[in-house]
């Protein structure tokens, strides 16, 4: 019996290792076992299915692991060693672009995912009195409902299955502005004269 790892899904306190086994032994599979070793701890997970949960994982810790399938008569070959990197909150987002729009501000960002895919970004813009928010599953994030020609500073956070990042550094003050395309044709004509 040869077992291989097909995927790993991380959660806030652990991981689920999905396995596939090629069974030519003639005996029925009774389950799977995964052993992992970190710098300070051992973990073991058992399951009757092809998905084995390991918990708790220490955030940021790297674990060296092996897995194998079991039958009533014993165990199969261990997988080649594989690593688990316990997921963590996303890294602090970096705002790489700010685009003022008509009644809105669009923010382009990048962030390390912490080992678990980013689920969404949240941007917060404030004029010092009022606060506005916008969310998006990817960059850019648009915050709308803003007043043109009023200065706002904005920050962004990123969230994955583990948690939410620290907020980014705030932007310099930026003011939404009415776009020329939204001005009446007669006014655009007068401006061009």
Search tags:
Immunoglobulin-like; elongated; 193 residues; mainly beta; single chain; three-stranded antiparallel β-sheet; 4% helix; five-stranded antiparallel β-sheet
3D architecture notes:
This protein is mainly beta and 193 residues long. It has 2 domains: 2-85, Immunoglobulin-like (Sandwich); 94-177, Immunoglobulins (Immunoglobulin-like), CATH 2.60.40.10. Helix content is 4%, strand content 47%. The chain is built from 1 helix and 14 strands. Strands 3, 4, 6, 7 and 8 form a 5-stranded antiparallel sheet that branches. A 3-stranded antiparallel sheet has the order 1-2-5, with no helix packed on it. Strands 9-10-13 form a 3-stranded antiparallel sheet, with no helix packed on it. Strand 1 (2-10) and strand 2 form a beta hairpin. The longest helix is centred in the last third of the chain and has 8 residues, at 185-192. It starts with a strand and ends with a helix. The model has no long low-confidence stretch (mean pLDDT 88).
């Amino acid at each position: 019996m040869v077992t291989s790892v097909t995927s790993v899904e991380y959660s806030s306190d652990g991981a689920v290792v999905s396995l596939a086994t090629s069974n030519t032994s003639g005996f029925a599979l009774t389950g799977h076992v995964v052993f992992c070793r970190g710098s300070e701890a051992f973990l073991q997970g058992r399951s009757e299915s092809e998905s084995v949960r390991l918990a708790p994982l220490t955030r940021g810790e790297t674990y060296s692991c092996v897995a194998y399938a079991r039958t009533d008569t014993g165990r199969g070959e261990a997988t080649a060693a594989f690593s688990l990197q316990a997921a963590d909150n996303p890294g602090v987002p970096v705002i790489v672009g700010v685009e003022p729009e008509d009644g809105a501000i669009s923010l382009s960002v990048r962030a390390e995912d912490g080992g678990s895919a980013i689920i969404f970004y949240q941007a917060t813009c404030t004029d010092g009195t009022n606060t506005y928010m916008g969310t998006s599953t990817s960059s850019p994030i648009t915050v709308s409902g803003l007043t043109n020609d009023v200065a706002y500073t904005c920050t962004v956070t990123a969230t994955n299955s583990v948690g939410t990042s620290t907020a980014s550094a705030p932007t310099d003050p930026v003011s939404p502005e009415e776009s020329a395309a939204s001005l009446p044709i007669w006014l655009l004509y007068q401006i061009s004269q």
